[in-house]
Every structure is written in C-alpha cells, then in structure tokens.
C-alpha cells in the first residue's frame, strides 16, 4: 500500500463547533494518521496520511464536517510523507 499525506485547509464556521474533535474521531475510524488544528485566521488545518482511498474518504468528510459546522471551502495540498503517531488534535 502506498501511503501519502495531504494537507487540507477547511474554511467556514469550523472553530468552536467541535470540528477538530469530530475530525480526529473520523481519522481514527478510517485508520489514518495526522492532526487537526485551529489556525489564527479562524480556519482549521488538517493533515491526513494514509492510502489514496482513505484520504479520499477523509476529504469527503471534511467537505461537510460535523452538523454544527459550516464548510465554505476546502483547499488541499499534497505533502511529503511524514509518519505521525495516531490522529490527534493540536
């Protein structure tokens, strides 16, 4: 299995609504590694490492987020692979 990493910037009403917690839960469910963290501009950065299929499933989740969130846009960028220990919130 080829493992890749992708960085997503999630824009919208994504802070203060449990977005990072729900994203970490989804990441653990999918078996990916990485993190979710709040950015100073009100967006959330999510790094996901796993198979292409796992990353695609996480991207689909990030387009919606939890019910309490409103995702306006999702920007993605491929990263060089880096091993992470589980999926955490920062």
UniProtKB/TrEMBL annotation:
Molecular function in Gene Ontology: acylphosphatase activity
Catalytic reactions on record: an acyl phosphate + H2O = a carboxylate + phosphate + H(+)
Organism of this sequence: Vibrio scophthalmi
Protein known as: Acylphosphatase
Active site per UniProt: 20, 38
Family: Belongs to the acylphosphatase family.
Keyword Hydrolase part of the UniProt annotation: yes
InterPro entries found in the cross-reference section: Acylphosphatase, Acylphosphatase-like_dom, Acylphosphatase-like_dom_sf, Acylphosphatase_CS
Pfam families: Acylphosphatase
């Amino acid at each position: 299995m080829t493992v890749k990493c992708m960085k997503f910037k999630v824009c919208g009403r994504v802070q203060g609504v449990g977005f990072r917690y729900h994203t970490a839960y989804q990441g653990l469910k999918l078996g990916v590694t990485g993190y979710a963290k709040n950015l100073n501009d009100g967006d959330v950065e999510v790094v996901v490492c796993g198979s292409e299929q796992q990353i695609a499933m996480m991207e689909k989740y990030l387009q919606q987020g939890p019910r309490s969130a409103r995702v306006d846009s999702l920007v993605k960028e491929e990263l060089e692979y880096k091993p992470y220990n589980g999926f955490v919130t920062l």
